[in-house]
């Protein structure tokens, strides 16, 4: 009797797993589907790109590169002065990103993507993920 129980238990455990593997074969699933998320549309600020120049470059070298490649410096990052927001013609962001990526003095260039900060009423306006109610991580009781 015990032997039949274990055989049935093993079969009950294996059948759903085998069925799940075969049920997905005919479907095209993306990572977003598997995670239960809808695809995210990439929103960016039209007419702006962000360029990270090599650390230690003088402003004059950055301004010369911008004058030669195109665009206009909108602002330098206060935290990382080598990170520069550049104004370019709307609709031509990809063209300018590629042009800046070709420069030897550029580490990274991309569109100025809009990011949603984790700040809600539940978080009390705080941005840190571990400060959000219910988020994983240490809380006040863990100290």
Please characterize this protein's 3D structure.
The chain has helices at residues 2-23, 31-35, 59-69, 93-101; strands at residues 44-53, 72-76, 83-87, 106-113. Helix content is 33%, strand content 20%. It starts with a helix and ends in a 30-residue tail after the last strand. Strand 2 and strand 3 (83-87) form a beta hairpin. It has a domain at 44-113: Peptidase S8 propeptide/proteinase inhibitor I9 (Alpha-Beta Plaits), CATH 3.30.70.80. It contains 4 helices and 4 strands. The longest helix is centred in the first third of the chain and has 22 residues, at 2-23. The radius of gyration is 26 Å and the shape is globular. The chain has 143 residues and is an alpha+beta fold. A 4-stranded antiparallel sheet has the order 2-3-1-4, with helices on one face.
Shape: globular
Residues in β-strands, percent: 15-25%
Please tell me the overall pLDDT: 73
CATH superfamily of the domain at 44-113: Peptidase S8 propeptide/proteinase inhibitor I9
Q: What is the class of the domain at 44-113 in the CATH system?
A: Alpha Beta
Number of helices: 4
Estimated structural class: alpha+beta
String of helices and strands: HHEHEEHE
End-to-end span in angstroms?
53 Å
Main sheet: which strands, in order across? 2-3-1-4
Task: Pick out its properties.
Alpha-Beta Plaits; 143 residues; 33% helix; globular; single chain; 20% strand; four-stranded antiparallel beta sheet
């Amino acid at each position: 009797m015990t032997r039949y129980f274990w055989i049935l238990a093993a079969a009950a455990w294996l059948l759903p797993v085998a069925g799940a593997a075969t049920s997905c074969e005919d479907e095209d699933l993306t990572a977003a589907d598997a995670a239960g998320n809808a695809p995210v549309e990439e929103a960016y600020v039209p007419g702006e790109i962000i360029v990270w120049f090599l650390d230690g470059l003088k402003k004059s070298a950055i301004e010369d590169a911008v004058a030669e490649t195109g665009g206009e410096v909108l602002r330098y990052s206060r935290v990382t002065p080598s990170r520069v927001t550049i104004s370019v013609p709307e609709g031509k962001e990809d063209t300018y990103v590629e042009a800046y990526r070709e420069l030897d003095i550029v580490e990274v260039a991309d569109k100025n993507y809009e990011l949603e900060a984790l700040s809600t009423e539940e978080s009390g306006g705080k941005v840190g993920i571990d400060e959000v109610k219910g988020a994983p991580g240490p809380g006040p009781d863990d100290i």
